[in-house]
Amino acid sequence: LPAKPGLSISGKLNTFDTRAWRKITGTDISNSGAELLHLPALLQHVDLQVEHFSGFGQTFNGLHLLLEKQPQSWQIELASAAIGGRIDLPFTVDAQHPIVADMDHVMVQREASSGKAAESPVPGTRSENFDPRRIPAVNFSSKLLEFSGVSLSHVRAVLTPRPDGISLASFSVDGQSFKTTASGNWVINPDGSQHS
Question: How far apart are CA 183 and CA 161, in angstroms?
Fold first, then answer.
């Protein structure tokens, strides 16, 4: 039996698509915390093995997904060949309570252009149809980040929302052969155009 009252779910899924889930629940990336996941209040624990997980323009095969409800957040663990690490997702995400992703490895591919509006921005791409004000506060770190075959070591990034968009407060790569730092903003102008 579960250690505390509430609902616990475990099992296996052949496929899970976040786009389909958001259509059902009516949520998007601008929702925060539990609303972003659209999880019922009764739920306390999830342990799923997903053969094909699709979301944010990526597909992860053989993903083991663990979710554990904490007093102020969801603790999420991801394990597969392409992604692995831990994410702390506060019930309410804001500049003072960011999503914290402490990853071991993240391997993603550039999303193929389909003529449709992007579900969310993919690193290295831009979409005039996407509003940067929808991006939540995130503190991201990964020992290995691979994007379309380009590998970077010890990557850190801090995204902080601002009224007119999103600020890349800090970005750093601290590998043995390559080191860099950066910062910047992606904002909406009063006329609706974007600049960074």
Answer: 13
